[in-house]
Amino acid sequence: MAKVRMYTTAICPFCVNAKRLLASKGVEAEEIRVDREPGLRQKMMAESGQQTVPQIWIGERHVGGFTDLWALDKRGELDSLLNQ
C-alpha cells in the first residue's frame, strides 16, 4: 500500500472527511498538523502551491484536497493509486 501524507488542522471538516474516506479504504494517513506548528504550513505551501488544508500526497503524487481525493474515488482511480 502506498504511503499517504496529509497536512491538516484540528477544525477542518474537509480534513475529517478525507481521513474518513481513507479509513474506509483501510488507509491510515500520516497526519501533519499545521495548526500546531505554523512553520509546517509554509512547508506545505511550498510543496503544494496551495494554502488550504487538507493537502494530500499518495506516494510521491500530490493529489490535492478532499474534493480531489473524492473525485479520484468516484472515477474509480483511488484504489489503484493506493495499491501502488
UniProtKB/TrEMBL annotation:
Which Gene3D superfamilies does the protein's record reference? Glutaredoxin (3.40.30.10)
Q: Which UniProt keywords apply?
A: Cytoplasm, Disulfide bond, Electron transport, Redox-active center, Transport
Query: Which Pfam families does the UniProt entry name for this protein?
Result: Glutaredoxin (PF00462)
Q: Which InterPro entries does the protein's record reference?
A: GLR_AS, Glutaredoxin, Glutaredoxin_subgr, GRX_bact, Thioredoxin-like_sf
Per the record, the domain of life is: Bacteria
A GO molecular function term, named singly, is: glutathione disulfide oxidoreductase activity
Is Transport tagged as a keyword?
yes
**Function (record text):** Has a glutathione-disulfide oxidoreductase activity in the presence of NADPH and glutathione reductase. Reduces low molecular weight disulfides and proteins.
Which NCBIfam families does this one have? GRX_bact
What protein am I looking at? Glutaredoxin
Query: Which species is the source of this protein?
Result: Gilvimarinus xylanilyticus
